[in-house]
């Protein structure tokens, strides 16, 4: 592997190739960093459920960890801080090789604990799998590629540290020179140093964007949690204290034209899509603290047919749906 890595390093890469590899490294770092932050800010998070569902290699060890609170707490902390440190390392290109190998090891453990094999289905919520391949394996393979292309030596803190060490060991002997020439060279050296620093800290603005986006997301979630908790504590219902609002109803007589359509290949698709919740919003009622009985009683098959018919007459020929509503759509 070392010989192969050296041969890869000896082959020159274009700026675009280096940039794309760096973008892949930063994207994986973003993912690891986000997963670590989500777990760190959730005091109830634990990997016990994930480990207890293991049915493949080392399943006995994983079950033992899940059933031992003291060991489980240590594993949870290692998992959280491992994700965070790996994410930071990949994001900024700091100790990139160590971060890459650590990420591969962590993803390999995730894959072994719950592989997407036929016959090993579990009750965990997953983002999908394709027989042997899942997102953990895809990300693991991408990290293996990064081992042979250490992007930290192209763009990142690793490059800055390497240049600093190189300049310290190869500092030339200073000889008397004309004062003006010395000043000019010193200025050029400082300028080059600044450019080098800026180039290798190019991911810093992205990190600021990550922090801002995460805080905004946490703010929205916190508001929603507080709002729903307050409503539950106050035993608020859907009818009392409602704001009086007047409605202006429109009918097909007010229709001035049909919705415009576009083409995807030979398929004609309306530019306005019918949302799945328009015909099946009642399905989410189980997740709310309260729900009006009117909503449940309104979404009958006949009302769904009326909605689809009205949409078609307006020129809408496309809708977003799910397999559970196929029966109603076929009957229509």
Explain this structure to me?
The chain has 332 residues and is mainly alpha-helical. It has 2 domains: 2-202, no CATH class; 252-331, no CATH class. Helix content is 60%, strand content 4%. The protein has a two-stranded antiparallel sheet with strand order 1-2. A hairpin with a 2-residue loop joins strand 1 and strand 2. Helix 5 (69-92) crosses helix 6. It is extended, with a radius of gyration of 29 Å. Residues 173-192 have low confidence and may be disordered.
Secondary structure layout:
Blueprint: H1 2-10, H2 15-40, H3 48-52, H4 59-67, H5 69-92, H6 96-113, E1 129-130, E2 133-134, H7 135-148, H8 157-169, H9 179-200, H10 204-233, E3 261-264, E4 267-270, H11 277-280, H12 293-298, H13 301-313, H14 326-331
Antiparallel strand pairs: 1-2, 3-4
Helix pairs in contact: 2-5, 2-7, 5-6, 6-7
Summarize the structure.
The chain is mainly alpha-helical. It has helices at residues 2-10, 15-40, 48-52, 59-67, 69-92, 96-113, 135-148, 157-169, 179-200, 204-233, 277-280, 293-298, 301-313, 326-331, and strands at 129-130, 133-134, 261-264, 267-270.
